[in-house]
Prior knowledge:
Layout: H1 2-10, H2 13-31, H3 38-62, H4 67-93, H5 117-135
Helix pairs in contact: 3-4, 3-5, 4-5
Amino acid sequence: xTHTHTQADDAHPYLRAATAGIRHHARQAARTSSPVDRVxxxxxxxxxxxxxxxxDRIADTTRPRHPAAGRHLASAHLRLWQAATSIHDAFHxxxxxxxxxxxSDCRPERLPEGPPVLTICQRQLASGHAIRRKxxxxxxxxxxxxTA
Length: 148
C-alpha cells in the first residue's frame, strides 16, 4: 500500500506544480488588497484555457471505456469554457494600462493591436471553436442542407 501512495504522489508532476503555484498565488492574493489588473486576468485566462484543452482530451479518452465518467468530464469541459469566457469578459471591462492605446473588443475583422489583448482574444476564440466543434452537429455528407 505504501508503494501505491508513493506512486500517486509522483504522478503528474507538472499538474501538481501548477496546482501548488495557484495555491501559493491564492494565499498571496488573500494577504493583499491590490485590485486585479489585466495582466493578472490574462494569466488566469491562460491557465483556464490550458485546463480546458486538457479536460477535452481527458474526456475524449475516458468516454469510450467509461461513458458515465466521460459525460461528467465533458460537463466539466463545458464549464471551464464558460469560466474562461467570464474571465475574458472581465479582462475587457478592466481599465487598460495607462501606456497602452485604446481598448478594443474581440472582433475577427479587426484584431486588437497586440499583447495582452491579442493573446487573450486568440485563446478565447480558439477555445470557443473547440466547444462549437464538440457541441454543434456537423453539416457534412449527402444529407446536409445545401445553400446556393
